[in-house]
Specification:
alpha/beta; four-stranded mixed beta sheet; two-stranded antiparallel ribbon; rod-shaped; Rossmann fold; single chain
Length: 200
Amino acid sequence: MYQLEEKTYFYYFAVIAILFLAYFLYSLWKKRKQKLFSDNGLLEKLSPEASTFKSFFKTMMVALALSFLIIALVNPKMGTKLKTIKKEGVDVVFALDVSKSMLAEDIAPNRLEKAKQIISKVIGKLGGDRVGIIIYAGNAYPLLPITTDHAAAKMFLQSASPDMVSSQGTAINEALKLAKSYYDDDDQTNRYLFIISDGE
């Protein structure tokens, strides 16, 4: 992670640009003034140790020092930071059709057992999320209240069968109504309802 603590100090780099501009203008002005009084040969004899490079080098050193000072004021930081993230769990309710048509063996071992296998796999991947199970046929019945006990959810799921309902049919509307009672808060958005049925 890379972070700049005081980005506003970057504007001070304009001072360095102004410094170079001032040096350039001063050098031009100095050369013009010198040419008014003597030629280059005479100037070299009068000032043999004068050096344009030395003057430029000094200006560069000042600019470099200012650059390091500005970078220090900006205070760049690199590294890692631990941050606690609050994870909101979801409430997942499964409404499973246990009518006798779910015993058809067109899907091995049968429709009901295949549905149980799929639901069990999903429950195993829910982590800390809560799960509830409803069974329905002609009517809907709560098989397991909403809970975080996934082991219990899988155990109750395996017990689901057509013998647990008193009438046959596919009362999906009844399952939907019952599912609403599983959620604590009507304003809660992190909730899911899975309806598993063969439609018969």
